[in-house]
Design a protein that fits this description.
Layout lengths: L1 H15 L3 E6 L4 E6 L1 H128 L1 H6 L5 H74 L4 H11 L20 H25 L11 E4 L2 E3 L2 E3 L2 E4 L5 E3 L4 E9 L3 E7 L4 E11 L6 E2 L4 E5 L9 E8 L2 E3 L1 H7 L5
Antiparallel strand pairs: 1-2, 3-6, 4-5, 6-13, 7-12, 8-9, 8-11, 9-10, 10-12, 10-13, 13-14
Length: 439
């Protein structure tokens, strides 16, 4: 039975693929090759398989090319979105810097106005004391004048009584009438002068009281204006401090510890003009205490500004790039930074103030720059094509330190960027994202 099936199969092949002969002629002889139906079938099957493999491979390549084009287009769109975000953040940072500068200018103007108002208050206080002294003198004079008036009235009554008894007193050898009349005239004139002085003193007292009321009203207006100015300054300081506190906390840094370290590094003072800010004694008036708190807030903002320069919140690249690898485990190993791919030779910038502690080749990293910053932070910039700094060099945030390259263990042109805190690797995106809403 199997032999019969095989025979039928060969017969069908012979009908479809009859036996062929290929003649090969040379100068001396002629040879031929017999192509059996089975051989032809095997050759056709192999050709069909090769053709099918070619079609499938071409389709896979086309699909990969199409998907790669879509990925590149998506990457370009993401890059454009990121650059737009960076531009918006730069504009927002400039706006916040202008607002901070304007707030400082307003505060300086307010301090000048407060100084002028304090001088006016001191002058008004001196004037009030002078008026109180004058009023006291006037009251004493009035009391003395009234006493003298009462004495004069009593004397007039006595003289009048003596005048009524004049003839009898004259006969008995008493005071002559001419002397009594003269005395009465003198007393009357004295009483008139006293009354005039009393009225003048009363008028001066009324004027002084009116001036005192007016000064008290002006002092009240000045106090209200002081309160409005202090309230505006306190709100401005609070609003400006909140995003800075949030930025440092998001980056895992203690704001109070940072402020203490920066204050210790910038503690110099002195000079012939004395301190820059007035010392506010404890237990003073409320306005002085509020002014002291505002000065402390502005000083903290200035210390924050110094701390920002010393922590890696900036971007190491300012040209176009795309993220190609993040922080974390990759292929079973820990990737302790982020990779940013860009054009060959793209400038690399320091992300914070610091000191260069390594500038050269290091295994795996290729050309590497290490910068030590304040607060126990270190940044690393690997795979550079060229190093532009030296060991021991002081750099500031935004200084160019090298060019992007493909040195060391690298599969393409990119920057390997690391941030280490206390010797341990930290995700650099923590600092970059923390600064998104501030700069």
């Amino acid at each position: 039975m199997p032999g019969r099936v095989i025979g039928r199969f060969h017969a069908a092949l012979e009908r479809r693929l009859p036996e062929q002969r290929l003649f090969l002629r040379s100068d001396t002889e002629t040879r031929f090759v017999r192509l059996r139906p089975a051989t032809q079938a095997v050759a056709l099957a192999g050709s069909a398989a090769v053709l099918a493999w070619t079609i499938v491979a071409t389709a896979i390549l086309l699909m990969d090319s199409i998907s790669s084009g879509s990925a590149r287009e998506q990457a370009r769109r993401e890059q454009a979105t990121y650059e737009a975000r960076l531009d918006a953040l730069s504009l927002e940072r400039d706006k916040r810097a202008e607002e901070a500068l304007a707030a400082q200018e307003r505060f300086a103007l307010a301090l000048g106005q407060v100084s002028q108002m304090q001088s006016a208050l001191l002058a008004s206080e001196e004037r009030r004391k002078e008026l109180e002294t004058g009023i006291g003198v006037i009251q004493a004079t009035l009391r003395r004048t009234m006493t003298e008036r009462d004495d004069a009235n009593q004397r007039v009554a006595e003289l009048a009584a003596a005048a009524s008894e004049g003839p009898q007193l004259a006969a008995n050898g008493g005071t002559p009438p001419e002397d009594v009349a003269e005395t009465l005239g003198f007393v009357t004139a004295a009483l008139g002068r006293t009354a005039t002085e009393r009225d003048a003193m009363a008028e001066v007292a009324d004027t002084a009281k009116a001036e005192a009321d007016e000064i008290a009203y002006e002092m009240k207006l000045l106090e209200e204006r002081h309160d409005d100015i202090f309230t505006s300054l306190e709100e401005a300081v609070t609003i400006s401090m909140a995003p800075l506190d949030k930025m440092f906390s998001s980056a895992g840094l203690d704001p109070d510890d940072l402020i203490d370290q920066v204050r210790r590094g910038y503690s110099g003072q002195g000079g012939p003009l004395g301190p820059l800010a007035p010392m506010i004694p404890p237990g003073g008036d409320a306005d002085a205490e509020r002014a002291g708190r505002i000065l402390e807030g502005l000083d903290r903002m200035n210390l924050y500004r110094l701390a920002v320069e010393k922590a890696p919140f900036a971007m190491p690249l300012k040209t176009s790039f795309r993220y190609t690898s993040g922080f974390g485990r990759r292929w079973g190993r820990m990737h302790e930074g982020i990779d940013m791919a860009g054009a060959q030779g793209s400038p690399i910038y320091a992300t914070a103030d610091g000191t260069v502690v390594h500038a050269g080749w290091e295994s795996g990293y290729g050309n590497l720059v290490k910068i030590r910053h304040e607060f126990g932070i270190e940044t690393r910039y690997g795979h550079l094509s060229k190093v532009r700094v030296e060991v021991g060099q002081k750099v500031s945030r935004g200084d160019k330190i090298g060019d992007m390259g493909n040195t060391g263990r690298s599969t393409g042109t990119h920057l390997h960027y690391e941030v280490r805190t206390g010797g341990s690797a930290t995700n650099p995106m923590t600092f970059i994202k923390a600064a998104n809403n501030v700069f």
